[in-house]
Amino acid sequence: MTAAPRPTFQGYRRPDGRVGVRNHLLVVPTVICSSVVAERIAAALAPIGTALPHTAGCGQLGPDMHTTHETLAAYCGHANVGAVLVIALGCEQVVAQHLADAARRAGKPAHIVAIQSEGGTVRATARGIEIARALVAELEQASRETCDISELILSVKCGGSDYTSGLASNPALGRVADRLVDLGGAAVLGEIAEIMGAEHLLAARAPNPDTARRLIKVINRVETDAMALGLDIRGTQPSPGNIRGGLTTIEEKSLGATHKGGERTPLADVVGYSAPITRKGLTVMDTPGLDVESVTGMVGGGAQVVVFTTGLGTPTGNPIAPVIKITGNARTADAMHDNIDLDVSGVLDDKETLEAAAGRLFAEVLAVASGRDAAAERLGHREFAIHRRNPTI
Amino acid sequence: MNPVIVISERDNVATALEALDAGQAIAGTVPFLVSEPIPRGHKVAMRAIPAGASVVKYGNPIGIATREIPPGAHVHTHNVASARGRGDLPKSDPAADAPRLAEPPADRGNP
What we know:
By secondary structure, chain A is α/β, with parallel strands linked by helices. Chain A has two domains: 24-139, 3-Layer(aba) Sandwich (Rossmann fold), CATH 3.40.50; 150-378. Chain A has helices spanning 35-44, 62-77, 96-105, 115-118, 121-139, 163-182, 199-203, 209-227, 240-244, 250-257, 291-300, 330-335, 354-369, 375-378; strands at residues 8-13, 19-20, 24-29, 49-51, 81-88, 110-114, 145-148, 153-158, 186-189, 267-271, 281-285, 305-309, 323-327, 342-343. Chain A has a seven-stranded parallel sheet, sandwiched between helices. By secondary structure, chain B is mainly β. Chain B has a single domain (1-100), classed as Archaeosine Trna-guanine Transglycosylase, Chain: A, domain 4. The relative contact order of chain B is 0.18. The chains are: A alpha/beta, B mainly beta. Chains A and B meet through helix 6, helix 8, helix 9 and helix 10 of A and strand 7 and strand 9 of B.
């Protein structure tokens, strides 16, 4: 008897050895001031062209400036990106060359257009579109090849949660995460506030005391930061919509949310926002609970695919990674069918087992990784937001 | 289909999979009578939970009862406080003193 064939997907093998599931031309503004020009250039080459409009890049000191720089650089080097065009203003803090270098280190072409030296919006946009057209022509030569499942880093995420999230969609996703890790892949879980109350379950899966200590340390920091505001975290965790949906406390939300990181996968690592995910197994990333900031950070860390569970329904996408939506709420699957990729509500009325739902989700991940558009991509959802913790100066 | 789901045998609350009516009898290992309407997705007490005791779901504490919760009652923000992220409490006041908490602000019902 021969072993079952290993699951594979069709991906883009990059010069640095990593594998992408999309082949985007990324148009990156260094600063908020060049965001509109970057968006116009990307729109002219959509959907291969995609921009990273953001509100940072200047007026930031210390850790926030570092996070902005490193997040933008991480997207430039990301395996889902085939070529990079950096749109600078000229006087900002973020260094355009640093972003272009991140792309070139990963073996991909990168160019810079600066609005001040190009002579204004009209000239910079025209010059950018000209370069972008040439880069897209190059990208269109690339082809997909068969890649092993172990090349995948899967971001697991939930948002707009209700009582169905902890009972159906998160446990189904957790089983996919466990299976992926069994096969040599990696998963990343963010949203530190939504581990609060369930950290003992994750810490128990750490292979050594140091990893467990780093998890507890980051959770304590987030709880201390929240408490320093002198308020009850229940104003935001759970959110008003979560509370209407039946979730009473952050502990309850966390216990349901943490299921999506698997039931047995070892806790391999704890990393900072947008930092590279280098270990197989489950990595916890220090991201806030705000959906778009959280997805932005986990994709920055290297996740090529995001699976996002929702109870109430939400449209969030990402500029370079497919975001697959699954729900355990039959009403949401119907009412927001354009946003939802997979309905697992059958788990709650005994029409489907969790194992069967997880099997469908696993197949969906492989199909989307191989090129099928997720609903968020079809709808043009490309939300992007870099986390910041300090004031703008 | 059972109208409620109990996740762990350690739990003292069940989750309503459909809206429950006052007087409805719930079968199971811990049978009880629903004492007030419970919206779909919300929790109902399976047994009495004394003020100050833990409310348990997923086999783990999810908060502290701020008043005695009789069997069959709705269990939500009006009678359960979180023990985490409580920057509103005086530093000297351990979260375990939750029964003395004020009601949380009402949901403003944003669409």
